[in-house]
User: Fold these one by one.
Assistant:
Number 1:
Amino acid sequence: MTSLVPLPVILPLLGTGATLMLFRFPRAQRIVSALVLTAVVVVAAVLLVSVDRDGTQVVWLGGWEGLGIALVADRLAVLMLLVSAVVTLAVLLYSIGQGITGDERETPVSIYHPTFLTLVAGVSNAFLAGDLFNLFVSFEMLLFSSYVLLTLGGTAARVRAGTIYVVVNVVSSMLFLIALATTYAAVGTLNLAQVAERLDGLPPSVALMIQLLLLVTFAIKAAVFPLSLWLPDSYPTAPAPVTAVFAGLLTKVGVYAIIRTQTLLFPDSPLSTLLMVAALLTMVIGILGAIAQSDIKRMLSFTLVSHIGYMIFGVGLATEAGTGGAVFYVAHHITIQTALFLVVGLIERRAGSTALLRLGGLARLSPLLGVLFFVPAMNLAGIPPMSGFLGKVDLFQAGVAQGSPLALVLVAGGTLTSLLTLYAVAKTWALAFWRSPQQAHDMARLLVGHGEEDRREQDEQAVPAMVEHRGHVHVGSVAFGAADLDEARQVADADAPDRDLHQLIEAGALPDRLPLLMVLPTAGLVLASLAITVVAGPLVGYTDRAAADLTDRDSYVGAVMDGVPR
Amino acid sequence: MEVNLTLLVGCAVMSGCGVYLLLERSLTRVLVGLVVLSNGVNLAFLAASGPAGDSPFWGSAEPEDMSDPLPQALVLTAIVITLGTIAFLLALAHRSWQLHGHDDVQDDVEDAAIRKLALDDATSDSFGLSTEGQEQDDPVEDRQ
């Protein structure tokens, strides 16, 4: 079975080559990418079963045992592989249904499929890497693809967001290189298993420096506060499927790297307090940011940052139960966050916008869209009995079991974050799905002062009262800041080209149905997130076994170094 | 292990200069900063590889006298990756110049919004919904 291990990397790379050659034949490109990703899903599923049954599998590329590059498939790695393969396949089908970016007329692209496949190869390689430098190379593969995908078409907004994204990530890559040079100077190897063996002999201060360098690097990629500030600004401008795969996968690769290095290299970490404080701040500050947003994409980007905190919480506990909880939460969160961003893409397609000021009555316009948004949104907030609830309970139990005061504070913080997430998604639900488009339109007009005369003529109940307070305009229970006024002004100005949902309905300018190939993958992911709930028992059993592997460093080191001459 | 001080000092100076340039507004300077920084980091790898020795070919020298080839391979990979990144950033800077006539790294949307809030608060006690003064809030113009 070990011959299967390199396939999740090799297949997408072969696909990249094939789709590059087929750049004149978009249909063939689509078929090749879909086939390749389906094959990766199958390979990952087979690996999951065989690794769970037979234990960790190791492949030394080129047969250079002990010297070359090792690919290591342990329980954590193959679980991540399977989840990421399923998610990328869904996103690819969705992007085919959407016509890639939805705006090819201005931005013709033939490089979408090759870039996407390279991204998948990079992600798979990162999960399988048994070598710090190989991990660096896979990060670069996936980052480089993400640079290209984020700036597809080179529109002004994407160039602005892309510049910040590229510079931040290049700086973190430089930090990673410094960490690698330091590690090599200290222990003379970059193979994870060998580093793990030799780190124990180092002076604690040197080990601490290496740990800090690696942590900062991965924390930038995973968007842990205060290194998360680049994320909410760069993700929302990309095309919907690109944002979805970034939000679902790229930050989780950072989280995966943190889990891997913390458990394998630094099991008795002096930094677990630091990690827990960072987790708390990530959760709370992230979700406060989400509440303040008035665009669904930006709101979701902030909840993404916030929920990274839960996973870091699990790692920071440094117990087996905490690690298991973190692994389960990663698997749950990849699925759910990708599904949500895909739904937002559908909303944009159906209603022309994702700004809350412009939306209303989506639940009536498209009940299917309402269901597709509602289920993962409630799952994200952690409503029982869904997987978000189970994952959080798992983490909180681990926190209480660890029992330190800080862990209890984090449990409280996690509960608060969960409630605030519920508030943020419920606000989105109420504004975008529940009120009528007429109400949304009136509110926008009220905000810029156009609506006063309409209001006197109308029923007072139809338009909620408006209060100004400290730079915010409160309409009913919702506050809008000055940043939203531009949006409102465009909506209220009858001559402006930008229209809100009410105007679009009046003008009959909406697409009347959604492409089936966009709806099906989204529905599939939503169902997959529900399936995680159904199979939560076996899955928790699996993640607990994965965590046991991670806590027992000797099993990893033993599997990698088995038969290698020392 | 003996460490070459010259390499370390070179690495420190180049990294320092690189970071200074990274903090500039213009993307071209950021780019130059990245080039300098990455070369500084490459020097760190050379410092990590220990003293230079004979070329590491089989049979050409005693294994103890050879220099360590692995860090050099790592540096080569890093150089290639940096080359690609720099090329991409150059393209971004060029595109930014095409679009805006400058290549300044622009403000975060959130920062711009917060700045706008602060400006509006400073000009009036209770925030009015007037549209005056909104046009001059372009972050690029403010800075100059």
Number 2:
Amino acid sequence: MINRALWIIMLVAGLTAPFFAYPIFVMDLLCFALFACAFNLLLGYVGLLSFGHAAFFGGAAYITGHAIKVWGFPPLVGIVTGAAFAMVLGAAFGYLAIRRQGIYFAMITLALAQIIYFMALQLPFTGGENGLQGIPRGNLLGFIDLNDSLTMYYFVFAIFLTGFCIIHRTIHSPFGEVLQAIRENEARALSLGYDVDRFKLQAFVISATMAGLAGATKAVVFQFAALTSAHWQTSGEVILMTLVGGLGTVFGPVVGALIVGALSHELGSFGSWVQVILGTIFVVCVLTFRRGIVGELERLVRK
Amino acid sequence: MAQALLGLNVGVFYAMLSLGLAVIFGLLNIINFAHGAMYMLGAFVALIGYTMLDDWFGISLQIGFWASLIVVPAFVGLLGIVIERTMLKRLYELDHIYGLLLTFGITLILQGLFSNYFNVSGTPYPGQPEILAGVLNLGFMYFPTYRLFAIVFSLVVCFATWYVIEHTRLGSRLRAGVENSPLTQAFGLNVPLMITLTFGFGCALAGLAGVLAAPIYSVSPLMGADLIIVVFAVVVIGGMGSIMGAILSGLALGMVEGLTKVIYPPAASTVIFFLMVLVLLFRPAGLFGKEK
């Protein structure tokens, strides 16, 4: 019941948002919401803490930016190229990382992501510290002008919904059931005859692709691929969003992304205090509030 | 050879940090993400102790370099104990990733606090003692005296830690606590106290590394942030199983990085991560780790 209510709220809010808020800001939130949903697919439903998801988010942003700006790809093809890059990268990272479990998995994904960060800093096409600038938005399907911010907004909202539905579908499929079985008890899933490593790798690739889709879209929104998108603190931020909203809930990451995003935006003028405040929220969440907002709501409704 | 020695200089910091992580991991099963922040904190407390205390309190008060080697690790270790007692303790029953997440939050807080008061571009530590200034003639090269001191001092600390854990009564008790905590407790040993002190000690090691690094690198709020991820890779390469593994792989990888800087500079910041990939492909448990 609560899920149906959240679906309706999300659709209505998403469709009307650009009339109440600054569209670029809402688009930014939507990109982070999709990113958080992708991350939650792994941590919330398979129990894998990837601390390197910024590599997919940021990496796809650079590839999309380059494809559109230098190769002259149309925006949609550019975004798909970025997501495909994240998919390949996800397959490689996942293959390496699933060899170890738990906190090792987190450390390995973090270290692998750092390779991408240094590449984004050093490769000739990335613009180093300044990032990749001046990505044209172009025309969607050849005739819809994306430079109009309202048009661009609905394009981004459509991408968000597509990604969200793919993740939703993945979770509520037999495949998703197996993933949750792995999260609950890996040894049991293994003894039931499931090829646990293959399932984990597939989930990792889907998650990486969706994170890449979010990053690629963000690059087109801002016409800019930034170095911070690939930094490990962005990986941390997406974990925070998921944790605040509710781990292992469908809508939790969306709610979390809205709250953390709005908070960072509101507190922007306080400089480094934002980091202190986010850190404090992190600590409080881990210590007392592990279900997150949507998780707590669901528990209340169930009572 | 000269580059290898300079690399060893970085290596001793890797070794001290991964040693601290290994000691904490051994007893608490938690990866202390705040380890890099503790290292940064160590450097800053040394800097503040040397340059700012008299301003703050209006009396002539200065903590010199030698005193810092004692006072700063004690301070950082104490902070570690407070963190363990008040926060980490509540998470032992849960999945280990919560410990990682909590310490990540603490990292953000510490980094943010120091970024507010100090320039992110870094401040030099002026307190390097006279006696360690200048360079030494080693026969084949001239080497800064201070760096040589830092190498020798860190090596002594690392091997002393290894000796205590592997070859003393105290160490055998610690290892028993890791192996089987309820049984060890039944023998009348206070395991929770051991855990608290071990966490404090691990943090103190990071703080000490920070003091030693302060005169070499500039002291900045972000000095620990990227270092900690390299240390994670070092830990994966070495394997968490052994204390010696942490020390040796730390030293070796520091030298590898130093040599890469000479042969192909752009790869210097990533060579350790690529080595990690290679090790994972062939020995997923790490070079010194045991397969579970």
